[in-house]
Design goal:
With about 180 residues, the protein is of the alpha+beta class. It is built from five helices and eleven strands, in the order ββααβββαβββααβββ. Helix 1 runs antiparallel to helix 2 and helix 3 packs parallel to helix 5. It is globular.
């Protein structure tokens, strides 16, 4: 059985999904939009990703967890309405373990940087073992109050890949190869 990883579909230019630090160089407008997500926590971008010898802004983030249960929990909290999930999938065997690791997110999501022991080696089997969202994460999302930040992925394991990932490795939910999502500017 194929293990899938998930990535939110988005405004991608060129032939690769790029980490934030590479977006700054190649697509400053997309970089500015993505950087805004970190406005209240810019220091996060320099947090170490120990196994890959780089920082948070040098990696592409993927999830071993399908987004549907995460967004269903957010809907139960009343913080969002019914959502159309726009995501892409990636076969977990296509990532080189030398450029990829897993961040377990076992500790307080606000803990920065994440402790070294929360990073483990990447394998497709390890990703498959993490494909069910933790009960703690879903409970948090179901019980968000009106003033808490959403942070849907805060306590969901992360798959971190150092460097770009070719766009043509991703598939739509219908199985089509992802090509350029946006036209090059």
């Amino acid at each position: 059985m194929t293990t899938l990883l998930y990535k939110a579909a988005g405004d991608i230019r060129g032939d690769d999904i790029l980490p934030l630090n590479q977006l700054r160089v190649h697509y400053p407008d997309i970089y500015a939009r993505e950087l805004a997500k970190y406005a209240a926590r810019l220091e996060t971008l320099d947090n170490p990703v120990y196994p890959l010898d780089c920082c948070w802004a040098d990696v592409v983030f993927l999830s071993p967890v399908h987004p549907a249960p995460i967004f269903a929990a957010l809907q139960m909290s009343g913080r969002i309405g019914p959502a159309t999930l726009d995501y892409w999938t990636l076969d977990a065997t296509l990532l080189d373990p030398a450029d990829t690791c897993i961040l377990l997110k076992r500790h307080d999501p606000e803990l920065r940087p994440q402790p070294r022991e929360d990073f483990i080696p990447y394998t497709p089997d390890a990703a498959a073992a993490l494909s069910t969202p933790p009960d703690r994460a879903l409970d948090r999302l179901r019980n968000l109050n009106a003033t808490e930040p959403l942070y849907p992925w805060a306590d969901i394991p992360h798959i971190l890949h150092r460097g770009p990932i070719p766009l043509n490795l991703f598939r739509t939910p219908a199985g089509a190869v992802v090509t350029r999502y946006a036209t090059d500017a």
